[in-house]
Design a protein that fits this description.
Elements lengths: L6 E6 L2 H10 L4 E5 L3 E5 L6 E6 L8 E2 L6 E2 L2 E4 L3 H10 L13 E5 L5 E5 L2 H8 L8
Parallel strand pairs: 1-4, 7-9
Antiparallel strand pairs: 2-3, 3-4, 5-6, 8-9
Length: 136
């Protein structure tokens, strides 16, 4: 049976540029790399991103055809949303408006992959107690 997600593959146009951004801006650590791909991870986090250099221009996002809203594929848990939002803006990262009601915002990496930053109660509770039920 599946017990957790080990990695999520992310398309990038230039691996060196992407690694610089993910390590400097998002504080990922490089776990392994070769000429065209790399595993990166956050300290203390089990799920890794697998950056893959490609000429394919498809990026991580989709549009909800019912609402017209563009959705990201990966949400990052952030304890201080306003500070993280300000930090990204100061570093020239494309960000959406901070949505207090939704407890989050979206942002893009240099290749246009769309991510979310959120602090939601279930993620917070799970972080504090990993044995908590994921049933809502």
């Amino acid at each position: 049976m599946i017990t957790f997600i080990t990695s999520v593959e992310v398309p990038v146009s230039n691996l060196d540029k992407a690694l610089s951004w993910y390590t400097k801006i998002l504080q990922f650590q490089v776990m392994w790399r070769d000429e065209q791909s790399a595993f990166i991870a956050l300290a203390g986090e089990g799920t890794r991103l697998f950056l893959v250099q490609t000429n394919d221009e498809k990026r991580l996002e989709f549009t909800n055809t019912n609402t017209g809203v563009v959705h990201n594929i990966i949400d990052f848990y952030v304890e201080n949303l306003p500070a993280f939002h300000a930090f990204l803006k100061q570093h020239g990262v494309e960000v959406t408006e901070l949505q207090p009601k939704a407890m989050g915002f979206g942002f893009r990496d240099p290749d246009g992959n769309f991510y979310g930053a959120h602090i939601d109660q279930l993620s917070y509770q799970y972080k504090k107690n990993p044995t908590i039920s994921s049933k809502v």
